Amino acid sequence: MSMETSADKLTPQQRQNSAMEMRRKGKTLAEIGRALGVNQERARKILIAAERNESLPRWVQGLQIQIARVLVRKGFRSKRAVRAAINRGERIDRLGAVRLAELSVWLNS
């Protein structure tokens, strides 16, 4: 029988946002870890991922982090450029069918 806390129900993005907010308020890694229900090392890794994700360009907001990283690495600089590439039939490597479907929903939003 496991006891779920509200931290257990957070998405990875919500967990990263929460960790960054706590860090900005001066909380230690141990305090962040306790609040998120993880150990200090895991809290550190969550913060590293959050900092990396904050460096993503603004135009990828609302898109899953993994997809955003692929698009940025491929050199796309705007939502319009991604849409144009897909309309031309270009393949975006490293995105499977599920991620492409998610990308399509984002492009049409």
Written overview of the protein:
This protein is mainly α and 109 residues long. It folds into 2 domains: 6-54; 59-107, no CATH class. Helix content is 60%, strand content 0%. The longest helix is centred in the middle third of the chain and has 15 residues, at 40-54.
The shape, in one word, is elongated
The portion of residues assigned to helices is 55-70%
Number of domain modules: 2
Q: What is the succession of H and E elements? A: HHHHHH
Q: What's the main sheet like?
A: none
Low-confidence stretches: none
Question: Helices and strands: which structural class?
Answer: mainly alpha
Beta-strand percentage range: under 5%
Count of individual beta strands:
0
- Structural Rg: 17 Å
Present the secondary structure layout.
Layout: H1 12-24, H2 29-36, H3 40-54, H4 65-73, H5 79-87, H6 97-107
Helix pairs in contact: 1-2, 1-3, 2-3
